[in-house]
Please model this.
Amino acid sequence: MNGFVCTLGLANRMVRQANDGKISPILCATGVLVCAIALVGCQTTKVENSSPTDKGSLKPILLGVALAQTSNLALLGQESVNGAKIAGDYFNQKSGINNTPFKLIFQDAAGDEASAINAFQSLISQAKVVGIVGPSSSQQAFSADPIADRAKVPVIGPTNTAKGVPEIGSFIARVASPVTVLAPNSLKAALKIDPNIKRVAVFYAQNDAFSQSETLIFQDALKKQALPIVTIQKFQTTDTDFQTQATAAINLKPDLIVISGLAADSGNLVRQIRELGYKKLIVGGNGFNTPNIFPVCKQLCDGVLVAQAYSPDHPNAINKAFREAYMSRYKQEPPQFSAQGFTAVQVFVEALRATDRKQKLSSQSLAEQRVALNQQILSGKYDTPLGEISFTPQGEVIQRN
Ligand code: 1QQ
Model:
């Protein structure tokens, strides 16, 4: 897949260099989009439980959304919630599930495993949803997804990118492009901007499954490019003080710093690295993929490259509709996590419609609906804001763009 690589910061210096001195919002470079995004500000819904669809009635079909609405992870999770809400309105206005409305049941999965497990259990056993969009992080997915899998409830991870998530079970799929596909794009972009990179310092959050997974992909890609890693520094996603690790790395005079962490910690880490005088490029992983990082590192975010699996400019009709709805509701361009939240709901809606056309959902028990829905999700093809996607039999996303 070709990635989209964004340079965080105001009409970034690096992008100006790479673009022959002209400031342009988008620069195409060997199959990778590099865009400068402006410094912008950041920007518990719980719906009452209702009983599952009864035979022949127009009671709404219930779909669970278990994402981070609170905690540090909310910087990312809330964006997916916003995307899911837009999808809920959009597809219900377009006759829902073949003229039966559907209702999104939101449960705050916060930032830890226990909250994600609680959210999943409540959606499965109390709300009796037909499927679940969530959780926000891979760390949570490895704990909560097995519960849904055992209960035979289909799950679509909107933003779980670590290696091994679809392999959790046969009811688990994701629309998030995995770290294996996404991460190497930003390294390629960094080398294009600065071909003289010789020494690389790597940082990662050691208490987070996604960060552990992503750093291995980065390290592997660096080895393949014959770029020496001069140090590997570890931190925790809960850390706020990075002086020791940042000083140790900067003393080794790296030409590139590569960071795998979540938004809040990563933003603080970037700020402290810059405050200690490091001026060269930084490559950030998927945890940087939100404008909510700007209030954390502010203008010191400048010069950070991030690969993203979504472009607001993707030219298909569904992305245009999504982007328009997003801009009018949230007054900003849709970020990747919102596009992925929208897409996860869209896949459920389209698979529910197809399942219902084969055999009326109202004539099936909830257990039958869940199994039929899971099979349909995996066999379908979807034209989404992320471009055309489908799934491997294992539930891994195949994203063309
Ligand atoms: C994961 C991620 C995070 C950055 C999403 C919140 O990619 O946990 O897999």
User: Anything to note?
Assistant: The pocket of (3S)-3-methyl-2-oxopentanoic acid is lined by residues 76, 136-138, 159-162, 210, 262, 286-287 (CB under 6 Å).
